[in-house]
Design goal:
The complex is a heterodimer of chains A (229) and B (739). Chain A is built from six helices and eleven strands. Chain A is of the alpha/beta class and 229 residues long. In chain A, helix 1 packs across helix 6. The longest helix of chain A has 12 residues. A seven-stranded mixed β-sheet of chain B has the order 8-10-7-11-9-12-13. By secondary structure, chain B is of the alpha+beta class. In chain B, strand 4, helix 8 and strand 5 form a beta-alpha-beta unit. Classes of the chains: A alpha/beta (229), B alpha+beta (739). The interface between A and B is medium-sized, with 31 and 31 residues.
């Protein structure tokens, strides 16, 4: 089972992600430089967090057009699992691999804090390590995590069970106070139609060790490792 | 184009900040009248900011050596040995003047500059910290400055991907016209791959890497060496503009190149840009340097030699490499899409020679430029001693619990969550203790060890007695490191003061440095790097003396870290360093006296450095042996505030205070006697006995309760959730314009 992490100039959570993948998959991921068009044969491709190309256009907009993303898209079309976290989620929406867009946080400030998420479905390669409706605690750290899509798209996501994670309070209930960035319908992460691509703003890779203050992020990577085995 | 034909009149010399005496030395060194480029170079090299001319004499008195010290002050940053082949490299630096003029860019480039000082030496930055001082919350500019500075620090640090793990903030009217932005970076390197700045090997290539040179920041160092006046905001063009994305690439490219054997010396271009970097590299190597300025990557046309040499454009580095390494080094920078230009070579002439447009634009002997830089023994007048205020003379409040709440919501004590949630404090995945505790702690990747770090200073004490204040800043960092279980190793200092040409200000500097030196010596806690920021005055109004200390300590086992959060009801809180029969408490220069009585008066609490050491060593041992479940040092606001903060750090727990019957209750609760820690334990008798054995006074001060109340005395209590609301509300409300 092989994994790869795409590294853009300005990526900065690729190392956090590599450690999480190594722990759950038992093998180091391949680090793929953005100028490479020749993507190795892998079972999981991860687009990590950071500020690709400085995010000087829109977050993820430049990364979405880098050479390597064409290959990522081709693999995704063939059913290879693709995970985008934070800047990776922004990049996947900019690349058209996931619907909607990530706008500036409603509070107009960068926000780094632990939030609670409800796992909306355990029926995917990404979320099989959790139970349906389980509440998990993981951190967010972003400036542009305000998920937006038109009402029709949001309805379609809901109807097809493509909302992966939602911001909730500690007790698992939806609330505005639990929403750190103003995302529509408290959406923290979504799947593509085949549930083989997942984008989410929170950082499960920074919640994999008791010393992080919690290990709730680990379920995502352990679940992936089992599902892709 | 030839050398710009600017006549060197006395007015031009004065504009460059050189005194008549300094200009006379310059003429002697040059043996002729300088041209404008040469004058500019002398001007920045001899500015207070670059030459430390007022402070050097006193800085030399600080202890800078110790068993762990690999490199003390004088390089880009200090280096200490932390065992297992690793070194911690760290420094703090101010960006006060630019941050007042343009808070976002000023603060952002402050972070960028200190990061470069650290990775220049071969270290990967693993943490950032910052110490901030703003004016009164009532001042019309304060909100704007807080907003700009915090977003600037976050904007830069978040993008480069280095966690910001600790910091401190104060508000006081003395900073209305001069805010302080001190940024610290801690990095990790292998002890056998540390890079220095001394040029070597005549014939070797001088290479410029990073961003292009523009006209921004020209004379920033000179600006930082003069008082502000009303028109200071017109100096906005001297503030640099930061590009954290380029910095991130520069970090990765430099660290990648440092794994190869190409670099002989490397230096970042910080204050005074290409001038100070080239002069310092040549000076340290006792060699000369020749630069062809036509090869410097520029982003504007028609830049003169003067502008290129004095630009403070950001994200640039200067390296000396072997000529045969050029292709290998260039490939690394090409990969990261960064400029790489050979702009000169090392020579044996001992001169810095600049060429542009086919003509020699400057020719200065480096030795005298560096060694004959002015150094002053400025007149200094000690601060008058303040009277000791007896606690009994200070009125007691009607309610201790309500007074506690008022202290916890005052601007200097209110929660800083609004600030640190704007900083990515988790990136890199090794943050073990997040902001809001006594120290930030970052794990050393793939090990169980960690580094603890903190920045501290109590300007209230410094203005009351600079010597005690200087010592207290050192001791407070030592306590904060100890309180998480770390072994304090070394410090970096940032001396922020007013105009040193005023004897009373110089007296503050002399006093603070003396106190700092005494504390560092008593604790075997050397100073390995630092920065001096003087002339923090506007219209003759000086800031409070603010000698900020950044402390770094080693954590042997991150599984044994301690935090302030209470863990279990039924445990006992013991104050170590607290005599059981204490009847009073030191209220002079305290937060209580200022916030509740409106008096900024009195002598600050004295320090006992020997007792300090005994108590700290005891606390560290108790944490290591797992005999305490929580620990917090007693700081601003005293014992009751400390206990309340321990309850606030937990959820659903409270505390019942055990006030001694004979004590003056408000002085016991809010006195700021030094050298104390509160620990939580299920074995109070054992802890008190251990203290007794160690010669440390100890007293049971409270019991942890499950009711979620903070019970101070009979009928005088407040719920921890109420305290939390008030403690958390002030800063967000203030920033929203609500207060």
């Amino acid at each position: 089972m092989k994994t790869a992490i795409i590294v853009f100039p300005g990526s900065n959570r690729e190392r956090d992600m590599a450690i999480a993948l190594r722990r759950s998959f038992g093998i180091d991921p391949l680090m793929v430089w953005h100028k490479d068009t020749d993507l190795p044969d892998v079972d999981l491709i991860v687009v990590p967090g950071g500020f690709s190309y400085g995010d000087y256009l829109r977050a993820g907009a430049m990364g979405a057009h880098s050479p390597v993303m064409r290959s990522v898209k081709e693999r995704a079309d063939k059913g290879v699992a693709v995970l985008g976290v934070c800047n990776g989620f922004q990049t996947l929406t900019e690349a058209g691999m996931l619907p909607g867009a990530l706008m500036r946080n409603a509070g107009l400030k960068f926000v780094c804090r632990t939030v609670h998420l409800r796992v909306e479905t355990a029926q995917s390669v990404f979320t099989g390590g959790y139970a349906d409706g389980q509440t998990i605690a993981v951190p967010v750290a972003h400036n542009d995590g305000n998920y937006f899509a038109d009402e029709a798209t949001l309805d379609r996501l809901e109807d097809r069970g493509l909302v992966a994670f939602r911001y909730v309070d500690e007790g698992g209930a939806n609330s505005d106070a639990a929403n750190p960035n103003g995302s529509r319908r408290n959406i923290a992460g979504i799947f593509n139609d085949t549930k083989t691509v997942l984008g989410l703003m929170p950082h499960p890779e920074d919640a994999i060790d008791p010393l992080h203050g919690g290990t709730d992020g680990r379920g995502l990577f352990d679940g992936l490792a089992r599902a892709l085995a | 184009m030839t050398i710009p034909n600017v006549a060197i009149t006395p007015a031009v010399v004065a504009e460059h900040g050189l005194s008549d005496d300094e200009y006379a030395v310059l003429l002697k060194i040059m043996g002729r009248e300088p041209n404008i480029t040469e004058l500019g170079i002398f001007s920045v090299m001899w500015s207070e900011h670059c030459s430390y001319k007022s402070s050097k004499r006193w800085l030399k008195t600080l202890p800078t050596e110790g068993p762990c010290v690999i490199q003390g002050p004088g390089e880009n940053a200090g280096v200490i040995d932390i065992g297992e082949g690793l070194a911690a490299i760290f420094k703090i630096e101010s960006h006060n003047h630019p941050s007042f003029i343009e808070p976002y860019q000023g603060a952002a480039t402050g972070v960028g500059g200190i990061l470069r000082d650290v990775f220049t030496m071969g270290a990967r930055p693993i943490a950032n910290l910052n110490a901030l001082r703003f004016g009164s919350p009532d001042h019309p500019k304060t909100r704007h400055l807080v907003h700009g500075v915090v977003s600037g620090i976050g904007g830069y640090g978040n993008c480069v991907g280095v966690p910001t793990v600790a910091g401190e903030v104060n508000f006081h009217p003395a900073y209305n016209g001069n805010i302080l932005v001190n940024a610290m970076t801690v990095g990790l390197a292998q002890t056998d791959r540390i890079f220095y700045s001394a040029a070597a090997g005549p014939g070797n290539a001088v290479v410029y890497v990073g961003a292009k040179t523009g006209r921004d920041g020209i004379h920033g160092a000179t600006m930082a060496s003069a008082e502000f006046s009303e028109d200071s905001e017109e100096k906005r063009p001297t503030v640099q503009v930061g590009d954290p994305f380029t910095e991130k690439l520069l970090i990765e490219a430099c660290l990648e190149l440092m794994q190869k054997d190409c670099i002989i010396a490397i230096q970042d271009m910080g204050a005074a840009g290409l001038t100070s970097s080239s002069v310092e590299m040549a000076g340290k190597g006792a060699l000369g340097i020749e630069l062809d300025l036509d090869n410097v990557p520029v982003r504007e046309t028609g830049m003169t030699a003067y502008e290129i040499m004095l630009s403070e454009s950001q994200e640039r580095m200067l390296m000396i490499i072997r000529p045969e390494s050029e292709a290998e080094a260039r490939a690394v920078f090409d990969k990261w899409d960064l400029d790489f230009a050979v702009i000169g070579k090392v020579t044996e002439t001992g001169h810095i020679v600049l060429r542009k447009d086919g003509a020699v634009q400057a020719d200065i002997p480096v030795g005298p430029l560096v060694t004959e830089a002015p150094e002053y023994d400025r007149p200094h007048r000690p601060s008058p001693k303040r009277p000791v205020i007896a606690a009994a003379e200070v009125p007691a409040p009607a309610s201790l619990a309500d007074t506690l709440a008022r202290l916890l919501e005052c601007p200097d004590m209110a929660s800083r969550r609004w600030i640190w949630e704007q900083y990515d404090h988790l990136v890199m995945g090794d943050t073990m203790i997040r902001p809001g505790a006594d120290s930030g702690v970052v794990r050393i990747q793939d090990t169980d060890r960690g580094l603890a770090m903190t920045v501290d200073c109590t300007p209230r004490y410094c203005v009351a007695d600079p010597e005690i204040g200087g010592a207290q800043a050192v001791v407070e960092t030592w306590r904060n490191l100890t309180a998480v279980g770390a072994t304090p190793l070394a410090v970096t200092n940032n001396l922020n003061f007013g105009n040193p040409q005023k004897p009373e200000i110089m007296g503050q500097i002399v006093g603070a440095v003396a106190g700092m030196g005494a504390a560092c010596r008593a604790l075997d806690y050397p100073v390995v790097s630092g920065n001096v920021s003087l002339y923090n005055e506007t219209e003759g109004q000086a800031i409070l003396p603010t000698p900020v200390i950044g402390g770094v300590g080693l954590v042997d086992d991150v599984h044994k870290l301690c935090t302030p959060a209470l863990k279990a009801a039924g445990e006992t809180l013991v104050a170590l360093g607290q005599p059981a029969d204490r009847t009073g408490g030191w209220l002079g220069a305290s937060l209580y006296l200022r916030e509740i009585e409106g008096r900024e008066e009195g002598a600050p609490p004295p320090l006992d450095l020997a007792a300090e050491r005994r108590t700290g060593d005891l606390v560290r041992g108790l944490i290591r042996d797992g005999r305490v479940s929580a620990c917090h040092d007693v700081g601003d606001g005293g014992l009751l505030v400390t206990v309340a903060e321990m309850a606030l750090a937990a959820r659903g727990l409270g505390a019942a205070m055990a006030l001694p019957e004979t004590a003056l209750a408000h002085a016991w609760c809010f006195g700021e006697d030094q050298g104390r820690y509160v620990v939580a334990t299920s074995d109070p008798d054992g802890v008190v006995a251990a203290a007794s054995t160690a010669g440390v006074p100890a007293a049971v001060v409270a019991t942890v309760t499950a009711d979620g109340d903070l019970k101070v005395a009979a009928g005088d209590l407040i719920s921890v959730e109420t305290l939390r609301r008030r403690h958390e509300a002030w800063l967000p409300d203030f920033m929203a314009g609500g207060t």
